[in-house]
Structure formats: C-alpha cells, structure tokens
C-alpha cells in the first residue's frame, strides 16, 4: 500500500537527487529512505529512479509519478487544513434565527464581525418569533436562536448575551416628551400600543407587572406584531410604547425616546440544541457575539 510518507520521501529524493540529503530533509536515516523508495517501486511495479554513484535520476515513469505525487501531497495538505478549519468553526454553514427588532441593535454588529473573522462560514439569517425559533431548533431548521424569552425546553440550552432596560417611546408632541427622564407612574392613564400577549407573553407580563407595581394597568388600545409598526403608531399619536432600549436606534419622525426610572431589564439570550454547544461553528458565533456586545456595553 502506498502511504503519504512514501510520496514525501520520493519527492524529497527527486528534488535533492541524493539519498543522503533527501534523508536529512525528511528526518530519517539513509537506509530507511532507501527502503521506502524500494517499497514504493514494488507497489508501483516499475522503476522510478536510476541510482548512480554520483546522483539519483528519475526514470520517465518516475518523472510522471513525481507530478502525481506532488498533486497528491498538496491535496492531502488541503484536506487536513479543511478538517482543522472545520474543527475551529472556520468553515461550514450557520442558520441564525432572531426576533423582530434585534436587527436594530446588536445583530448587525455581530454578523458583520463574524463574517469578517469566518469568511468561509455561510450565515443564513431568519426573522422568527421566539416560538418559531424554538420549533426551528427542535426541527434542526436553525442552529442558533436569538430571543427575549427564557427557554424552558429541556432539549435546548441558552446563554444570556446582553441586558437592556425598557424605555418610553412617546409621540414627539406629547407633553411628557419635554422631560429628560420619566417615572413609570407618569404613564398612568396613557393609551398604550403593544404586542399581542400570545406573541411575547414574558415581555408582555413583565411590563404589566411593572405598571401594576406603580398602581395602574396599561390600557392597550392597539396591537401590532412588529416593532416598526408599533413605533409608527406612536408617531401617529395612537399611544405610547415601552420598547427595549436598543430599539431607540430606530429613528422615526414623530417619535422620541425617554429613559424611565427603575425600568425592568430584559435579557436577550442565545439558544441552541443541547449538545450542539460543542459545535465549533456554534461556539465561534457565541464567542463573537459576547465579544461584540461586551465592547458595545463598554465592559
């Protein structure tokens, strides 16, 4: 059986044209190199080298064999490197689900950095609700999910990536827009626009508990499933909205954002299938995400 070491020995001998120098080059004794070449010739079935007292020359068959040997060694090196790069998460495909709105904060920076560092990994982004992401993870349609909801599915693992406070989104002409900072009690009696509870139950319930602790329950006059739609309703004067702070990057005419004292903190988490945390590509994406978000928070 022809082995890669036989090919390496043959190429070294062909290039050095001397058994002693070739043996030194491949770190073997001269007799071992001579035996390796002899075994190679037996496997091929024809003489590959002409041995003289002065130097070694290739036979016509040896010259042709040298071309193939070099190509085979180059291909073997490429194959090894591909395996090593795969083990480092540098090649492959990654499908990432994300909830509506994350495109306005964090996600673009993460994806840009990841693509810069891992240009040979194809990243497929899919905008999905948290429930759709969990189903996609279980069905192996996506590899990582980015969502606001805590995950209780025992088949999934998760890790908090970053934490964001809620802020108040107000119509630009609203009297409260003239203040630099609000209290949640300032919104008592205001009409609210918000997500349907069945779409984001944890987020919805967290806001309701916060308001209830201040002595009122928000009156939701209009629901919408997308953040830009809700902000458009704010701009139209339909009501106020309590988005996560990074949504304030979405500059919309007629909308102003104000911090709110003692605002609850919402965690954005990365979710993946239990066991896939050992996947080099998943690990690489999580590492990049944490690095980018840590830089963004100034930590």
UniProtKB/TrEMBL annotation:
What range(s) does the HTH lysR-type domain occupy? Answer: 2-59
Pfam families recorded for this chain? HTH_1 (PF00126), LysR_substrate (PF03466)
| Source superkingdom | Bacteria
PROSITE patterns named among the record's database cross-references: HTH_LYSR
Q: Which UniProt keywords apply?
A: DNA-binding, Transcription, Transcription regulation
What InterPro entries does the database record attribute to this sequence? LysR_HTH_N, LysR_subst-bd, WH-like_DNA-bd_sf, WH_DNA-bd_sf
Give the similarity note: Belongs to the LysR transcriptional regulatory family.
Q: What is this protein called?
A: Hydrogen peroxide-inducible genes activator OxyR
Q: Which organism's genome codes for this protein?
A: Deinococcus depolymerans
Instruction: Give the gene that encodes this protein.
Output: oxyR
